[in-house]
Amino acid sequence: MTKHQKRLAVPKSWPVERKEETYTTKAAAGPHGGAGVPLLIVLRDVLGYADSKKEARYALGQDSVLVNGTAISDERQPIGMFDILAFREREEYYRVFPDEGGRLSLTPIDAESAGSKLGKIAGKAQVPGGDTQLTLHDGQTLLVEDATTYDGNDSIVVSNDGNEIVAHFTYEEGALVTAVSGAHAGRIGTIDEIQVTPGSSPNNVLIETESGEERFETIEEYVVVIDENFTGDADDADADADETDVADADETDADGGEDE
Q1: Where residue 105 falls among pLDDT bands split at 50, 70, 90?
Q2: pTM for the full predicted model
């Protein structure tokens, strides 16, 4: 199977120039499905911590780059929404957060915030033994004993060490949310109304912006409940740090192939 991906076919969230070359790095199988951005692109083209795939592989071989608390050695590891990137030697921490237009951006956070990850509950099912299994937006699964506590579209914060649920945000009117896809991706506001649609059509969600002067409408699938302090992590980590827009990266693959 080829390890290259045609640029014209990559998701909109990927930080590649689609018409400059034919191919770019292909993400390995893993979390986030086809929307996951290969870690190589984040290291080389977004952050500039490596000049080539060879340098990225060497850095990853030192176990100094963590994704959600786990050292990653595969430069093709998919990186996606709400993942936590930690660079031990640099003492730098980032959360992958949706930006306007559905692009992914890296938000600087502090070390304490990097110890856990936000996840949207995408599925809920009972398993043998009486426990309930929660499936998150990135494919991660968790077993919980109280089936009535958590519902689909709720958000939970899971610790990277031990997968313990440390916070729970209910999907309901009045909840603070962000749109992660669609025409309003990246916008933040409070749920004003959840309109249940009969049949198989998705439910609509009316969201009032933070200023309170505007409302926008999106579908339930595109909405994720967040904490009121969730988007303030960048200021807590470094008041002078700029949010790194993944979509502004310069792609440098030559001859339609991969740098070595």
Answers
A1: confident
A2: 0.82
